[in-house]
């Protein structure tokens, strides 16, 4: 009997939550994830090349009275995070690269920022409408994923 009550309470808690994704394990639970059949080092090299040879580099902008530049970085948890600027839509996209299994890499689109003023980041699959998510994901595939090869 006690077992049934505990299970019932647990189920009520889970299903009454507005967002069940809060129980997701790992970093960036809302990210739109793509798998690339290339080693992580090659993917990073290709992304760096794309940013260098196209207009995807985020331009410096003024924030809090100082010129600021968003820089890609390696985090302690093994994620490498990148920022790209999509000129046509005036958006900054924030995404990660992480090694998956042998010769495969995961790329996750985390969030977008409209314009070049910080403070209005919107998480993919959380803060955007279904239509906005689809638009952002399509643009990301076009500008990054399709250029990496599979």
Tell me about this structure.
With 150 residues, this protein is an alpha+beta fold. It has a single domain, classed as Alpha-D-Glucose-1,6-Bisphosphate, Chain A, domain 4. Helix content is 32%, strand content 28%. It is built from three helices and eight strands, in the order αβαβββββββα. Strands 1, 4, 5, 6, 7 and 8 form a six-stranded antiparallel sheet that branches. A hairpin with a 4-residue loop joins β5 and β6.
Strand content: 25-35%
Mean pLDDT, to the nearest integer, reads 85
CATH architecture: 2-Layer Sandwich
Tally of alpha and pi helices: 3
Biggest beta sheet summary: 6 strands, antiparallel
* Domain tally: 1
Low-confidence stretches: 20-24
Form type: globular
Output the structural class: alpha+beta
Summarize the helix and strand pattern as letters.
Answer: HEHEEEEEEEH
Organism: Chryseobacterium candidae
Protein name: Lipoprotein
